[in-house]
Amino acid sequence: MITQKMKYALKALIVLADEKAGNGRALRIEEIAKRSGTPKRFLEQILLEIRNAGIVSSIRGRSGGYILDKDPTTVQLSELLRLIDGPMAPLPCLSQRHYARCEDCTDEETCRIRRVFAEVFWSYLVLIESLSLADLVRSPGAAAQVFAA
């Protein structure tokens, strides 16, 4: 399950992607919050994390604000999930980037719990790693389903 913070991040990025496709101007945080329905106080922290990852940039000055730096097709949803919500694996022993051996496990090779969750997790990874921000931007119906839960 994705967190509310992740939903806010996706909503803000959809707004910035739409703006980039339109007139390409930077948007102030108040405008992003208004268009995305995201509380400004949460959005500030989220945009800072996304900016530090190089996905958006901030521009100072009178016509400043935030702008999407990357093409939406290159912003993978899996990378956003990892950035905002952390590791995606249901068990620490399945995480590629944050691997940790389960404390109560005696043998990963024969662990039945690991084997079943690995199958589910790898199927999920194949799907989520194939999706980008562009998939949410192109498909308003699909984006609405993401946020409906």
UniProtKB/TrEMBL annotation:
Highest taxon in the source lineage: Bacteria
Gene3D superfamilies attached to this UniProt entry: Winged helix-like DNA-binding domain superfamily/Winged helix DNA-binding domain (1.10.10.10)
Gene Ontology molecular function terms on file: DNA binding; DNA-binding transcription factor activity; nucleotidyltransferase activity
Annotated GO CC locations: cytosol
Protein name: Predicted transcriptional regulator of sulfate adenylyltransferase, Rrf2 family
Record has DNA repair as a keyword: no
Entry keyword Cell membrane: no
Alphabetical UniProt keywords: DNA-binding, Nucleotidyltransferase, Transferase
Species, as recorded: uncultured Rubellimicrobium sp
InterPro entries recorded: Tscrpt_reg_Rrf2, WH-like_DNA-bd_sf, WH_DNA-bd_sf
